[in-house]
Amino acid sequence: MDDSDRSLAVRRTLSKRFGWVCWYCGVKLYKDGGHQDHIVPKCDGGTDHFENLALSCCFCNMAKARFQFRSLHLLEIVRLR
Known about the structure:
With 81 residues, the chain is of the alpha+beta class. It has helices spanning 3-18, 58-64, 72-79; strands at 35-38, 53-56. The chain has one domain (3-79): Orthogonal Bundle (DNA Binding (I), subunit A). Strands 1-2 form a two-stranded antiparallel ribbon.
């Protein structure tokens, strides 16, 4: 299994876990869509463990970048899009 197959398998598992919606904003995601996102970024000590992974839409993943949604205000901005 190559990296793209593994990545697709992880996204599918996360999609089932999160009900096919973005963990941050709740937007509906389509089959095999969404991004695998580290809730606590790896650069801040986060791991690849499933409990640290979320499924996010492209917008939220790019808006979050390497930061954590520690600020409710930042999360509200993302949800208002």
